[in-house]
TrEMBL record:
SUPFAM superfamilies: P-loop containing nucleoside triphosphate hydrolases. GO terms for molecular function: ATP binding. This is ABC-F family ATP-binding cassette domain-containing protein. Residues 4-214, 311-494 form the ABC transporter domain. Residues 264-298 form a coiled coil. NCBIfam families: ribo_prot_ABC_F. Pfam families: ABC_tran. The keyword ATP-binding applies. It comes from Gemmiger gallinarum. Keywords: ATP-binding, Coiled coil, Nucleotide-binding.
């Protein structure tokens, strides 16, 4: 058994005043298939980088040889086989490369292809295969499903489940985590939480914990109110009795001041006891709900277009180097519909989105959009921007206050509004793009893999938003649960 130990870890990035981790303690077995989850910006990628030794820490003890995914490819113009050997740092025989690639759905013909010509999903699978070919390594896998199609995600789950060695996997894909992990690690608001089981096991336990704490919080709220009222009445009676010691004796009766004072003291003591019980209940209440993740409702204000049909495509096919990327497709998009483009990596889904957004894309067939159509677009890769989130909003001409309010609902802390966009995590930068799109009033929302890097809680918020406001959408997304929930129809792209 090889244990990975983290003892009293406190870490901030150089030049940052905002700590990512404070006095973290953790121990786990490197043989576990460990899933890591948490809201964007909580430090998931940072934890992987710390374990990989990018920021050496005396508080981390790891005996295995950690290796990160994704990794930098120094020579993307080389063949797939050469890039894989570059990553492994060894002369891995072709048959081993072919075996690993076939398990991830890539044929032996891929070995001789130029790495840079592969789609992002294909490149990811090549790098994952190379990662698991490194003897004695401990894989640190950061969001491998980005840019993978549904079939690729299913194969990845099977592949990771079949590995003998353990790994640490960061992913927001619930189906992938259920398919391949046996332990879950969660970065919560107050620290790290570790448990045995897959994502669904973790979510059920979390829901039970939140339900218990909400019920206990409600009980303590009622108890505190009752005690406050009891303390108020007891104090009032004490004051009234105490004043009675010095009242004028018009009746001629003698007042026993000692007895009255004793009664007053008893009432005051009772009031103090009630107050102590109230303070104890308040302390118990304060310890609850610190890790409760809330998801406030988002709002969207789409525009209505007078035309019934907003997009019309007839026998459309995108062509590169004279070759069609997909078999010709015909479809229409009407107001209120949400159309999902479905197909394997490299089948031309993003090319159709770019064409509809007005970019020049070589094609055959017809592609028309309604006159005066206003489009709000979210692209695959997170925006890179020099400036703060507020300056990002101003550069796009969207309402800054509304933009920042949406980010708050998506889990941003106020301190992150002062950071440079380049210093934010990929998930946080993707949320900037989504918040900007949600601020824009448009007839059509064109989103290309909007959930890449986005945490599960935010995915649910976005799903609920779309179902409530029913905007007209054309989108590409490989999260099967999301597509099933919001798409009114699909267009499947097949190889020619």
């Amino acid at each position: 058994m090889s244990l990975i130990r983290i003892t009293h870890l406190t870490f901030s990035y150089p030049g940052s005043y905002d700590p990512v981790f404070t006095d973290v303690n953790l121990q786990f077995d490197s043989r576990w298939k460990l899933g890591l989850t948490g809201r964007n910006g909580r430090g998931k990628t940072t934890l992987l980088r710390l374990l990989a030794g990018e920021y050496p820490q005396n508080s981390i003890e790891i005996r295995d040889h950690p290796r990160m995914f994704p990794c930098t490819v120094e020579h993307p113009g080389h063949s797939v086989a050469a890039v894989a050997r570059e990553v492994t740092g060894d002369t891995v025989p072709d048959w081993m490369l072919e075996r690993e690639l076939s398990l991830l759905g890539l044929g032996e013909t891929f070995l001789d292809r130029t790495f840079s010509t592969l789609s992002q999903g294909e490149q990811a699978r090549v790098l994952l295969a190379a990662l698991f070919l490194q003897e004695g390594s401990y894989p640190l896998i950061d969001e491998p499903t980005n840019h993978l199609d549904a079939g690729g995600r299913a194969r990845l789950g099977d592949y990771l489940r079949s590995r003998r060695q353990g790994f640490l996997l960061v992913s927001h894909d619930r189906m992938l985590l259920d398919a391949c992990v046996d332990h879950m690690l969660s970065i919560e608001q107050t620290g790290l939480s570790l448990m045995q089981g897959n994502y669904s096991d973790w979510q059920r336990e979390r829901d039970r914990r939140d339900a218990r704490e909400l019920a206990e919080n409600a009980r303590l709220t009622r108890e505190i109110g009752r005690l406050q009222e009891g303390a108020r009445r007891a104090a009032a009676w004490s004051d009234k009795v105490e004043k009675g010691k010095y009242a004028t004796r018009n009746s001629g009766l003698r007042v026993d001041r000692g007895y009255v004072g004793h009664q007053s003291a008893r009432m005051m003591k009772r009031a103090k006891n009630i107050e102590a019980r109230r303070e104890k209940a308040a302390a118990e209440k304060a310890s609850l709900l610190k890790n409760l993740e809330t998801a406030e409702a988002l709002k969207l204000h789409p525009l209505e277009h007078p035309a019934a049909c907003l997009v019309r495509c007839r026998e459309l096919s995108v062509c590169y180097d004279g070759q069609a990327v997909f078999a010709p497709v015909t479809f229409e998009l009407h107001g209120g519909e949400r159309l999902a483009l479905v197909g394997p990596n490299g089948s031309g889904k993003s090319s159709i989105l770019r064409l509809i957004c007005g970019e020049t894309v070589p094609r055959d067939g017809l592609c028309e959009t309604a006159s005066g159509l206003v489009i709000s677009r979210v692209e695959q890769s997170p925006d890179r921007f020099d400036g703060t989130p507020g300056e990002y909003a101003q550069s796009y001409g969207v309402d800054k206050s509304l933009f920042l309010a949406i980010l708050r609902k998506l889990g941003f802390e106020r301190v992150q509004f002062e950071k440079q966009v380049s210093d934010l995590s990929a998930g946080q930068r993707k949320k900037l793009m989504l918040a900007r799109s949600l601020c824009q009033r448009a007839h059509l929302y064109v989103w290309d893999e909007p959930l890449n890097y986005i945490d599960v809680l935010s995915r649910r918020q976005i799903e609920e938003l779309i179902l409530q406001y029913r905007p007209t959408m054309l989108f590409v997304e490989h999260d099967r649960a999301f597509c099933h929930a919001i798409a009114t129809d699909t267009v499947e792209l097949a190889r020619p």
